[in-house]
Amino acid sequence: MSSSSATSVALLALAVVLGGCTSEANVPAPARSPQPASARAPVELAPVVVSPYSDAELAAEFERARALLLADRAREAAPLFERLARLAPGGEVAPPSLFNAGLAHEALGDRALAAERYREVAQRFPDHAVARGALFRLSRAAAALERWPELVEVSRRLLRLGDLSVLEAIEARGALALGLVEQDLVEEAARQVALARDLIEEHRLGESGKPPIELAQVSFALGEVRRRRSEAITFVPVPASFVDALERRCQGLLDAQSAYTEAMRSLDAHWSAMAGYRIGQLYKELHRDVMQVPPPRSAGTPRERQLFEGAMRLRYRVLLEKGQKMLAGTVRLGDRTGESSAWVLRARDAQREIELALADEQAALARLPFTEAELLAALDALKTAAPKRP
């Protein structure tokens, strides 16, 4: 092959190779399979509720439900407000519908469901006009349901509002004090009670006639503070000065009773039931504690120890009788007013316990080999010679 022919063949081969490379470069790359959905970042969309009703129709339905509520037909109003809140969860009728649903459930005696609605208003619509009222009602519901941590949280939120009226500030501080003391934060609760009482005294509230109900919670919280301080004084082991310890315990009882009695002046069945139960418990617990005092060292014989036991039973039985009287009054209050809270149920249980305790006391005294005159003589001796450490 001549050199020119060889050159032509080489150029032709090069053209074929280059042409092949060029054609491959123009072929589109195979499409990759799309990434699975799970590998992508999730996209969350707000739920969209499409209402079949216009704003005017929703407003008309709201007014119908409101009229039922104002007419004391809460059982009919409640489901209408619930439905409105579902149909327009972000609409203008949602906040007042939730609030009014809470009012309706509260009127029907379902405080737990009412609290849910008030809480929803406060969380979802904190700037709405009804949010303030929802917070106060949530505070009251939390107290009634004994949800003490929530009561503290809500009352602190109320105090942060900054534009509270005098009675609103008193109620918020009373609620905070109650929530704290029921969680054993006694001294912090006492400070809140003091702040509330300063406002009460400054504005001379409750000095005559029935005091505003906002004051009842403050008085009850004060009773709780005094009760816990009093019951911290115990008699086993026997203190160095039993008489002094007993006097301080009894004075604490009377101070707590005074505060609970002040709470009753509001004539509110719920606060009165709470206070009545607590007063009954004060006497019951004091009886339990003093009866744990062991005989003194001077009671060296079985007869002397029995005499000490009889004198103690005779002397302190009156505590059970006082407690029984107060609890019986609380139970009658519940029957008369229809108050059926846990406090009335507790009063019934405590009343039965005291009745059994009094029967046990009577039986124990009957078993002792002493006449009542002998026990009374021992009681006189006990009054002048306090129990000493065993």
From TrEMBL:
SUPFAM superfamilies for the chain:
TPR-like (SSF48452)
Q: Name one Pfam family in it.
A: TPR_6
InterPro entries attached here?
TPR-like_helical_dom_sf, TPR_rpt
What keywords does the record list, in alphabetical order? Signal
Give the domain of life.
Bacteria
The signal peptide stretch is 1-25
List the protein's name. Uncharacterized protein
Its taxonomic path starts at: Bacteria, Pseudomonadati, Myxococcota, Polyangia, Polyangiales
